[in-house]
Amino acid sequence: MKLCDTIWQIEMRMIKEKEIIEKVYLAIEKVSFSLEPHIRKLIYDARRMEKSIYGKEVLNAIVENIKIAEEKKIPLCQDTGMVVLFFEIGSGTKIEFERFESLQELVDFAVKGAYTDFYLRKSVVSVPDRKNTMDNTPSILWCESIPGDSIRFSVLIKGFGSENTSRLKMFLPSTEPDEIVEFVADCVKKAGANPCPPVFIGIGMGGTAEKAMYLSKKALVDIGRKKRFDMADLEKKIISRVNQLGIGPGGLGGTFTCLDARIRTFPTHIAGFPVAVSISCWAHRMHQGII
């Protein structure tokens, strides 16, 4: 038997369009009105430990905002953002396309449904003419292939007060970790109150320019979760240095400017060292799921 014949005989797990639509739709509903427990804990802990009177008042208002959003099903933020989706598709899976021709069309159908049904502000416009698409699509979709017979996905709703503060720098290969720390701190300093601090920071290091930016955005999915052993010390240094800026909650000064920072890395070329920074506001609307 030929190798190709053997490959085609491997049993694949079939995943229906409806399964993906439902998962994405419900994830958008969930994150639009509530924060994941581990994100909420970081905010509550900061409120308890904040030393600035003004900073504590801002955090009190944020906590009240979270409670009202959950109880009355009002969006956590008036900027209901742009939907970013990370799909990790198991090599043992196959999507049964019937109504749609691509995964992009499929997830955009779920996004359109959620933003319409839950009366979320539709903020996506075409460029350069800036005409509203009227349904908050298209979403930003990233796909990777992984082993296994399931699809893991992450939904990140990104407001543009923070998205507009994203930065990329092509460092020299000889760059030391302390220079990275200062670069991240400078990004936050220049951002000031615009990303609605206290913020969460994703850092991407390595690859090419666009890979580093991708890694920084995906690093935001790791916020509040168990740290990678090899990056933990550098992440702690970044958090400490950023908090030394004293920008504080709402930009009014205080102990907490950054609540968490995460790094994702990828090998790069001997001649370069790309480093990218993505910042998320306190309303870090993120959810991970499995299909």
Describe the structure.
The protein is an alpha/beta fold and 291 residues long. The chain has a domain at 160-284. Helices cover 39% and strands 24% of the residues. The protein is built from 9 helices and 10 strands. It has helices at residues 3-8, 17-33, 37-49, 53-72, 103-117, 160-163, 177-191, 209-219, 232-243, and strands spanning 13-16, 82-90, 93-96, 140-146, 151-158, 167-171, 199-207, 258-268, 273-280, 285-290. A 4-stranded mixed beta sheet has the order 4-2-5-10. A 4-stranded mixed beta sheet has the order 6-9-7-8. A two-stranded parallel sheet has the order 1-3. α2 (17-33) packs across α5 and α7 (177-191) runs parallel beside α9 (232-243). It is globular, with a radius of gyration of 20 Å. The two termini are 33 Å apart.
- Topology as a string of helices (H) and strands (E): HEHHHEEHEEHEHEHHEEE
Amino-to-carboxy terminus distance: 33 Å
**Count of strand segments:** 10
Structural class: alpha/beta
Q: What is the helix fraction of residues, given as a range?
A: 25-40%
Percent of residues in beta strands: 15-25%
Low-confidence region ranges: none
- What topology, given as strand order, has the largest sheet? 4-2-5-10
Q: For the report, how would you describe the main beta sheet?
A: 4 strands, mixed
How confident overall, as mean pLDDT?
Answer: 95
How big is the Rg? Answer: 20 Å
The global form is globular
Number of helices, counting only DSSP H or I runs of 4 residues or more: 9
